[in-house]
Amino acid sequence: METSVQSLTSAGNVLFILLGAVMILAMHGGFAFLEAGTVSKKNQVNAFQKILFDWSVTTLIYFFIGYVVAYGISLYSDTKLLTYDHGYEMVKFFFLTAFAAAVPAIISGGVVGRIKFFAQTIAAIFIAAIIYPFFEGLIWGRISFFQNWLTNIFGNSLHDFAGSVVVHSIGGWLALAGILILGPRRGRYDGTLDIRPSNIPFLALGSWILIVGWFGFNVMSAQKLTEISGLVAINSLFAMTAGAIGGLLFSKNDAGFTHNGALAGLVAICAGSDVVHPISAIIIGLVASFIFVKLFHWETEVLKIDDVLGVWPLHGINGTWGGIAAGIFGHKALGAVKELSLGAQIVGSLAAVLYALFLGFILYKIIDLIYGLRMSEQEQMIGSDLTYHRIEANPEETL
Amino acid sequence: METSVQSLTSAGNVLFILLGAVMILAMHGGFAFLEAGTVSKKNQVNAFQKILFDWSVTTLIYFFIGYVVAYGISLYSDTKLLTYDHGYEMVKFFFLTAFAAAVPAIISGGVVGRIKFFAQTIAAIFIAAIIYPFFEGLIWGRISFFQNWLTNIFGNSLHDFAGSVVVHSIGGWLALAGILILGPRRGRYDGTLDIRPSNIPFLALGSWILIVGWFGFNVMSAQKLTEISGLVAINSLFAMTAGAIGGLLFSKNDAGFTHNGALAGLVAICAGSDVVHPISAIIIGLVASFIFVKLFHWETEVLKIDDVLGVWPLHGINGTWGGIAAGIFGHKALGAVKELSLGAQIVGSLAAVLYALFLGFILYKIIDLIYGLRMSEQEQMIGSDLTYHRIEANPEETL
Amino acid sequence: METSVQSLTSAGNVLFILLGAVMILAMHGGFAFLEAGTVSKKNQVNAFQKILFDWSVTTLIYFFIGYVVAYGISLYSDTKLLTYDHGYEMVKFFFLTAFAAAVPAIISGGVVGRIKFFAQTIAAIFIAAIIYPFFEGLIWGRISFFQNWLTNIFGNSLHDFAGSVVVHSIGGWLALAGILILGPRRGRYDGTLDIRPSNIPFLALGSWILIVGWFGFNVMSAQKLTEISGLVAINSLFAMTAGAIGGLLFSKNDAGFTHNGALAGLVAICAGSDVVHPISAIIIGLVASFIFVKLFHWETEVLKIDDVLGVWPLHGINGTWGGIAAGIFGHKALGAVKELSLGAQIVGSLAAVLYALFLGFILYKIIDLIYGLRMSEQEQMIGSDLTYHRIEANPEETL
């Protein structure tokens, strides 16, 4: 009897985290469609190709290097782990590699339209091997000094349940570095480039896939079935709906902002989704959509930073907002189920900004010097699809 | 040991109903694509925008008002419920709000092409706050007099396992009221409007998403993992396949009718999916597709009711058919696993028709008088996309 | 207590295999998009129509005939099975019918563009009733002589965990027979037919849906939650990523080969996914993508076999490779968790080739003689969409 309960529990844990892993895998299809729908049509094929290839490379690199960096576990060398506990360690890796692979996928939307195909892959390799796993190890893994230091000062470590800071802000702030070094697309600021999304249905499809998959991203961050929390689901739902509503209202009914507003809410709720009250989640999502709509405009029109999908405000700034928001609303007086430390949330979130910006500049600068980052003007004009993949999205339709 | 079994059971229940909730959430992406693929291209963006926005508004309204109406539970005021039993009550709400949000999504397909954007939202608000939850409370919730009355008369209450009556027929018959008050689209009956679907692949995508998600809609209506029934899955599968086959045969191989035929079968099987024999499910699905193909033609060509996606026959009439069919086939003599009352099924199903038609006329009439329902001829000609969202589905392709 | 553990276990098993079934159902939407994106635009509607209709017909035929052939269980005649053990037998059938229906869906991609609509359906009926279930029964079901014979000779039976041989190779080699009898599409080898994919985003969507659903195909092949294995998931993941990487590298960054390369890896890993070491899975996937890229070219350009989606190399040859690869890498000395017999894997895999080729020639030859297989030149020129479904994918866009 006891054996069968243990076996069922362990099997349930494997199923639980596997479902999360598969849902986040699906999100990568969502990243591809969101990007393909937002870029110009001559870069659609490239979006699909990049996301699938970078996912694939990232997964293997993270298996052999990154996972060891973050957690000290080399799954490939210990045959016992293949089947121990129904193979839980294998599926947990799958779940976490899906997180790791999200970072290059996030960046992809910012640098699209003028980055060289394999420059993006090289960046993904270093991100999955070192940059992301080291910070992951710092917050969630085996590298304990930073969280210990925060606990000593603030009485609490950085709480980042599902990665507002570790995944989204790292991705968004790395992207900012890449975007700045790359410079804007040819014609972006002289009016010769059509910057409208090429395909709203694809944008919406990408957004829907991401929305749905996000419930795997957040809920399965509990990592064990027996730790599942319905509160995480409801907070994700509410931040998403509030983000969509805000996106629509703040943009005066723009489809791109509405669908991305839902994502902004989801980025921001990750950190505190297991802690804050659902009404706080509504506020967090609403603010996130406001940040996205306003700062995307400020970034791309005032600062003239050519962030194609707005990944810096969407994932970077909103990831930081999510980390801080958990500190603001994570108090029992506000209906939260746990006490978090605002200080630790602020310092931890800002540490991620500095970390990502600093390493991002080094990473993209080195790639630029050694391999080259930027497609030629001619290549950009032809588009990434014909330049790299010798085919357009709809070949028959070309005259 | 006993604690760990209880905890595992409770965690399993949360996972179970969460999966259902997420699958129905995904169905809303399906509603969007089904609508976008069926309407003219100038209304595609609008389809996505409406579905996401109305989902979002509906969710919050149902949380604060509708759920209290139907079940008497105000989740926002009782902090204990946030984490009690792994947060089961929170996820159950998520599951049921996904049902509630289906009603405006169903209606959307009927009124598209000429309804004002926010008129639709206003209707969604009243539907999610009062109209749907009151009827839901009557059949599934805390308002017991109607089911008691049916039981007194027929020895059985209305059995509606997964909402043929409560969700689909309420949605479809409300839509009929809205469609009649709105009137047909500009040019619909003078031959100047192209009424062919704009995009069969989108229509098919929407249909596939709905088909797949429907297994969450039906199977997870058991609400507890320990109540799961494989029979529900197989009956859903068979009604769907029979509906697709019927849709193809009755329409002479038309893609729209085939993909909607699958949905017609699924609408009709909801009510009795936990009770009837799989062979009965085949018959129910086949009849449902016949109803859809024949009555869609009768509705739109003979009665000249401009129901764009055919939501009245698809969800309304077939929802009613599903309620009654459960009474016809829900007998052990026909291989069913439970005895249902044909009388209660007929009276309950017809009550929903009257309820929805009556309140639908009042609702849309009042909105029409106060805010206005109908887009101007000029706006319809330009299309909802440019009228409300200042962008077309594929901006680059416009000359 | 014991009752509640048993009930929870049994409910968990039903949920587990149901999730698998639904994920494979979703894969059929993926088959449809992969085909629609790869064929010419005038055959897109047809792709959707065929996949949904053949799925539906196959399901019912397999229920009434095929399942009895393979497992000796007639679910429709034993009312007790409807609810016994939470209806596990019903959902297991759903899972296995989703496997059976994959065979016609695989074939569809090879014969598209010139096969008569109902000729394909007739073939699907015989495949689902007899051809597939008999071989299934031989390897997994109640017909024991072949596996006994292998065991006598090699000390081990054919190990085919998730159907590299039973599903994919049977599908791919049947397709080869059909393709050869049908002959190439009009204009395929005189340069008058545009053979480029019509829609890369649809191709990518199909591929993503298949990739994601494949984790249900493979992991849920354990059939019981308590038998779940994380190793299966990780091996599927690695074969997929290696296949995508190989597809890109071997094709010089072609989007079709990259996305199909991921699928090639998944086809090949099915058989041994529960046994081999993850590093072996990487090699298996890499070889699979090499096979696909090189043999697709050899098949279609050298042998001039007009296999539109390349289903013979993708599913047929790679299915065979998967069966044999399990024998090559299924040894504890190579880190595998079980010992397999290379001899049994080779003989079993080749038996499937002969079986499918032989019956495929008979099947398609008879259909050709009695009903006719091939669309007229005129019909091919117009396209399957207008010929059979009286509508194009995007009617508004036609001048």
Q: Overview of this structure, please?
A:
Three copies of one chain form a homotrimer. In chain A, α1 (2-38) packs antiparallel against α7, α8 runs antiparallel to α9 and α8 (230-250) packs across α10 (278-302). The longest helix of chain A is centred in the N-terminal third of the chain and has 37 residues, at 2-38. Chain A is built from 14 helices and no strands. In chain A, 71% of the residues lie in helices and 0% in strands. Chain A is mainly alpha-helical. The model of chain A has no long low-confidence stretch (mean pLDDT 97). Chain A has one domain (2-397): Ammonium transporter AmtB like domains (Ammonium transporter fold, Orthogonal Bundle), CATH 1.10.3430.10. Chains in contact: A-B, A-C, B-C.
In short:
Chains A, B, C: It is a multi-pass membrane protein. The structure is a homotrimer of 399-residue chains. Chain A is an all-alpha fold and 399 residues long.
Protein traits:
homotrimer, 399 residues, mainly alpha, Ammonium transporter fold, 14 helices, 71% helix, ammonia transport (chains A, B, C), membrane (chains A, B, C), Ammonium transporter (chains A, B, C), transmembrane helix (chains A, B, C), NH4_transpt_AmtB-like_dom (chains A, B, C)
Total E-strand runs of chain A: 0
Largest interface: A-B, 57 and 60 residues
Spell out the helices and strands of chain A N to C: HHHHHHHHHHHHHH
Query: Describe the biggest sheet of chain A?
Result: none
CATH class of chain A: Mainly Alpha
* Total discrete domains of chain A: 1
Named CATH architecture of chain A: Orthogonal Bundle
CATH topology of chain A: Ammonium transporter fold
Averaged pLDDT of chain A: 97
| Count of DSSP-assigned helices of chain A | 14
CATH superfamily of chain A: Ammonium transporter AmtB like domains
Domain Ammonium transporter AmtB-like (chains A, B, C): 16-390
InterPro entries (chains A, B, C): Ammonium/urea_transptr, Ammonium_transpt_CS, NH4_transpt_AmtB-like_dom
Membrane topology (chains A, B, C): Multi-pass membrane protein
Family (chains A, B, C): Belongs to the ammonia transporter channel (TC 1.A.11.2) family.
